[in-house]
Amino acid sequence: MKINIDKNSDLVVAADIGGTNIRVALVNSSGRICDKSKVEYSPSLGIEKAGDLISDMIIKISENKNIKGIGYSSAGPLDQISGKYINPPNLTGWHNKSLIPIIKNNLSVIPRVGHDATLAALAETKFGEFSGSENVVYLTVSTGVGAGMISNGNMIQGHNWFAGEVGHIIINPNGHSCSLGCPGCLEGNVSGTAIASIAKEILEKNKSKILEKYSIEKINSKIVFDYANKGDILCKEILSSVIENLGRGLASLLAVLNPEVIILGGSVAEAINDKYWDELKASVSHYCIQFYKKSPPIRMTKLGEDASILGASIIAQN
User: Fold this and answer.
1) CA–CA gap between residue 214 and residue 241 (Å, rounded)
2) Per the omega criterion (within 30 degrees of 0), is the bond before 173 cis?
């Protein structure tokens, strides 16, 4: 399988590999998405099938086009040179494996790779509301929790590529654990996965009427938000705890990193932004240092779900 590579082209193919779906887009150097496609995918099906699927999507979207390169963003942790995953909590079975050789074998092109939140932060500094900023944190709150950090214009990646794994900072020692077993960590208490897990426990214990409509296995974070918005007391209490814990995490990031802004993205962040943004800001203000109390610099991304894929387009251009 071949694609047309032209180093003078203004177009690149950018992909994003998440915990539940894969997206591929055709993007120009100005950050305009010319075409995109999305498919649901379970990581448990294996990295080899994912690599073949991505390759097929790239071929289709770049048909009759000349492209400059390929880049992809992914949930991590992962080595951003070799592409090898390092015990990724939301990509089951992908440890010590890489998509790069699969895509290279299929397309005869070596793709560039980056951590999804880091690339989202990069995209915010080039295409987002804070274009030109040199100190930005992008926090994704979705299936999992992770951060991308730009400091003095540089991507912070860490000694072993683990920088940004802020989902594992401890915000509630007596709280729930994440899938990696970190007791009371941010991801274990505010992610979509955590909300579903906490809700299953509480709704079953209290014999909630919600379980008359949904089996316990079907409970997810969207259902919790939906019922909280309808006034369900248990779901409102769950989200109140989520918002308080997220506020603690954001306050900690402000104190440690002193960014111009923390930008939030991801499905859980979007749901909070829809109905609970004032409560979140109040939580951040309560826990943060005095410098930030009056107006904590937290914002919702204006790039939507395209932030990471736009970041992938930047590394593909380079």
Assistant:
1) 23
2) no
Q: Domains in the chain: how many in total?
A: 2
Q: pLDDT tens digits, residue range 183-209? A: 999 999 999 999 999 999 999 999 999
- Domain limits at 15? 4-121+306-317
CATH number of the domain to which 108 belongs: 3.30.420.40
162: Cβ contacts below 8 Å, ≥ 6 apart:
77, 86
Do residues 18 and 74 share a domain? yes
Within 8 A by CB and 6+ apart from 256, the residues are none
- Quote the percentage of the chain above a pLDDT of 90: 92
Query: Hey, what are 46's tokens?
Result: 């294996």
